[in-house]
Amino acid sequence: MADQNEETSEIGESPESVVLADTSAEKATQGSDTDLEVEDPEKAFAGITGAELYLEACRLMGVVPVSHFIQNLAKPYINLNHHGLGPKGAKAIATALVSNATVTHLELEDNCILAEGAICIAEMLRENSSLQELNISNNHLDTAGAEAIASLLLDNLSYLHALQLSGNSFGEETAPYFAEALMGNYQVKELDLSHNEFSEKGGQLLGQMLASNTTLQILDLSWNHLRRKGTVALGTGLRGNGALKVLNLSWNGIGNEGALTLGEALKVNNVLVHLDISNNQINNEGAKKLCRGLEVNGKLKILKMASNPLTMEGATALVTSVRKNPKSMMEEINISNVLVNETFIKLLDLVCRMRPELDVIYGEVEGCIAKIPKQHPNPMKVIQNYLKEHNLRLWDFFRNIDKDGNMKIPVAAFRRAMMQQSSIPLDRVQIGELVRKLDRNQTGVVDYSHLKEQKLAQNPVEGEIEEEEKEEP
Questions:
Q1: Which of 30, 95, 136, 440 sits at 20 to 30 Å (Cα–Cα) from 387?
Q2: Residues 209 and 185: beta-carbon distance below 8 Å
Q3: Tens of pLDDT along the chain (473 residues)?
Q4: Which string of DSSP letters, residue by residue, matches 247-311?
Q5: If you ran DSSP here, which 8-state letter would residue 125 be given?
Q6: Are 442 and 369 in contact (CB under 8 A)?
């Protein structure tokens, strides 16, 4: 224990001001992706205070320096995930970053840094004034590590605004630390506490936190054990929260009562835009209770409910809630496991004519397996034919839809524009296929900036269509 305290105090002391890696140092390390194995590393990085500090810390800790860390000390982003650093390696890195003014995003996932390493990182963050995003997920931080990180947040001494703490074995005993810290923290906007062991009591404490926190915008609590009581408390906290935009509660066994509480919260919450309650044992009854909130909510855009035991009844209730709500901003409902029928498809087509930006992701259509599936022409080829007939380029097509002119169209706006136009004969299914092609990585944006260079080409449309066809599996 004395050794641990000694190590922690060493980290807390600010070293001499760091002189960051210059061009000559970058050349010295260029091409080396493996750990340093040089006879005289200090000489190789002469004149670089930050690197020298790290190398000296490694020597004292008895660990092998990581060349990738040294090479990137003068850059804003360093990724050291899965490097096997251990607590001593983490301490060496913390030592080098105390006075660093360049690194803003540090990835340290899956390095087994343990509570000892977390304590060193927390001490470093009390002094560091540049680090804004930190990932220390899957590091077995346990209770002592949670306490160190929470204490840092409570004191508001770091500049962190995004913190990932997934998979660190945080149990019920750590919930009070985080709840208290986040009640008073005004820096952190994104927090990932997924894949931990918070249960109903933890949910209750975090729910109280939500009622008073005014900064947190993204909270991931998926893959915990919040269940009914924990979710009821979170729903209660959500009612009065004015900051949270994204909440992930998937895989928590919240059940129908949890859905009811969230529905009640959605009646009054006017900030939340993304709610994930996938795989939560919510059946048709629970979906209907949630719909009470969806029928009046004017802010929620994305609702993920896949892998719940819903049937056509629940699916119909969800779509009908959007239809009933003139204020609804819904853009996506994911019920991808639900088997629907032609009656549902007709309802969805009707609702999508009223709400062209809406995308409902459902499972198979009942009876379609036995029938010959309806053939839809390739939407890109339909667009190509239209552009050829009207002597237009693909650039012109996108530019006409892009109201802001920044070459990035939100998917909902693109879907709405395609549904509302009458020149190109595309139905809802074809437009959905088109969106999936144009936004393959599901960023929520159709980015056509790559066409800028092609707009003066003789046949840009054909070239683009060919590229699309090549990428199809």
A1: 440
A2: no
A3: 444 444 443 334 443 333 333 333 333 333 334 444 444 544 444 445 789 999 999 999 999 999 999 999 999 999 999 999 999 999 999 999 999 999 999 999 999 999 999 999 999 999 999 999 999 999 999 999 999 999 999 999 899 999 999 999 999 999 999 999 999 999 999 999 999 999 999 999 999 999 999 999 999 999 999 999 999 999 999 999 999 999 999 999 999 999 999 999 999 999 999 999 999 999 999 999 999 999 999 999 999 999 999 999 999 999 999 999 999 999 999 999 999 999 999 999 999 999 999 999 999 888 665 444 556 788 888 888 888 888 888 888 888 888 888 888 888 888 888 888 888 888 888 888 888 888 888 888 888 887 766 555 545 444 444 444 444 44
A4: EE--SS--HHHHHHHHHHHHHH--S--EEE--SS---HHHHHHHHHHHTT-SS--EEE-TTS---
A5: H
A6: no
The token pair that represents 221 in the structure block: 């609590």
Give the whole-angstrom CA distance, residue 142 versus residue 220.
Answer: 18
Tokens representing residue 359 in the block: 């995308």
The pTM of the full predicted model, rounded to 2 decimals, is: 0.83
What SS3 class is residue 41?
A: helix
- The CA-based dihedral angle spanning residues 428, 432, 433, 434, taken in that order and rounded to the nearest 10 degrees: 100
Largest pairwise CA distance in the chain = 80
Residue 426 per-residue DSSP state? -
